[in-house]
């Protein structure tokens, strides 16, 4: 990441690692979806999304969705979905099911917030690689603010379960965050940077939800992610 992470106790007081200033963005954005193609926007320098250290990988974009590159995710105007042309890797020719590779996954993020207490963004990985692949663990997630600063999102501690995704099937995880009902402008998040479990390449999506509150209070919802799990009704083929 080009931007340094700063301590956050006085800013959002959620997971403790970033100092952000309130910005003048919308109080709460309307529900939206950001998507990447199976040849997803990806950088080679990210951390493993599902390793034991729980590290997240972040990309720095000014506001659009990134295109594939070897040095960093670029930005495109107009809030378009991230696109790229990197080729998929890995096969099952030796009988072993390889992990789901970033280049083979279609990734999208949707605002699934249903109340004014806890915000929920759901990130979906759809297998478009033409083969079965395995997925297990936590994704790496960074949020980029309009200031350019980044925040790595912590895991919620739930035990992950391994799954096999056939071609066309999907897995997903949720990002929960405190809903900004303070009446202030809050902290505007511009981008969501996601690394699939056990991968090193990441994709950059537009943040589809509203702002984060500048300060927390009693009983504030934590900013955290759940482990990736297979979507039970995802059709194969």
Please describe what this structure looks like.
By secondary structure, this protein is mainly β. The chain has one domain: Immunoglobulin-like, CATH 2.60.40.10. The chain has no helices and 13 strands. It has strands spanning 33-36, 105-111, 118-127, 133-135, 140-145, 150-152, 154-155, 163-165, 170-178, 189-195, 203-206, 224-225, 229-230. The termini are far apart. Residues 1-33, 39-47 and 51-89 have low confidence and may be disordered.
Entry summary:
This protein has 237 residues and is mostly beta strands. The chain has strands at 33-36, 105-111, 118-127, 133-135, 140-145, 150-152, 154-155, 163-165, 170-178, 189-195, 203-206, 224-225, 229-230. It is elongated.
pLDDT < 50 runs, ≥5 residues: 1-33, 39-47, 51-89
Number of strands: 13
Name the overall outline. Answer: elongated
Global structural class: mainly beta
Note the total helix count: 0
Number of spatially distinct domains: 1
Radius of gyration using CA atoms only: 17 Å
CATH architecture: Sandwich
Distance between the termini: 37 Å
Average the pLDDT over all residues and give the rounded result.
71
- CATH class descriptor name: Mainly Beta
Tell me the series of helices and strands, N- to C-terminal: EEEEEEEEEEEEE
Biggest sheet statistics: 7 strands, mixed
CATH superfamily: Immunoglobulins
What percent strand?
A: 25-35%
At the fold tier of CATH, the topology name is Immunoglobulin-like
């Amino acid at each position: 990441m080009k931007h340094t992470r700063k301590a956050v106790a006085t800013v959002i007081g959620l997971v403790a690692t970033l100092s952000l200033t309130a910005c003048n963005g919308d109080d709460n954005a309307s529900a939206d979806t950001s998507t990447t193609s199976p040849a997803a926007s990806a950088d080679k320098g990210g951390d493993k999304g599902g390793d034991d250290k729980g590290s997240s990988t972040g990309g720095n974009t000014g506001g659009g969705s990134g295109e594939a590159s070897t040095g960093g995710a670029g930005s495109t105007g107009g809030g378009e979905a991230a696109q790229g042309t990197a080729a998929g890797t890995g096969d099952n020719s030796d009988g072993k099911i390889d992990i789901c590779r970033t280049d083979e996954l279609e990734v999208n993020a949707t605002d699934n917030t249903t109340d004014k207490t806890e915000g929920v963004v759901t990130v979906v990985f759809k297998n478009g690689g033409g083969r079965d692949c395995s997925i297990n663990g936590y994704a790496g997630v960074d949020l980029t603010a309009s200031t350019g600063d980044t925040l790595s999102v912590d895991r919620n501690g739930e035990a992950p379960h391994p799954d096999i995704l056939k071609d066309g099937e999907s897995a997903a995880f949720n990002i929960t965050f405190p809903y900004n009902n303070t009446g202030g402008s809050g902290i505007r998040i511009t981008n969501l940077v996601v690394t699939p479990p056990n991968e090193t390449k990441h994709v950059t999506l537009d943040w589809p939800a509203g702002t984060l509150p500048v300060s927390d209070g009693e009983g504030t919802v934590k900013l955290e992610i759940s482990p990736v799990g297979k979507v039970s009704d995802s059709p194969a083929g």
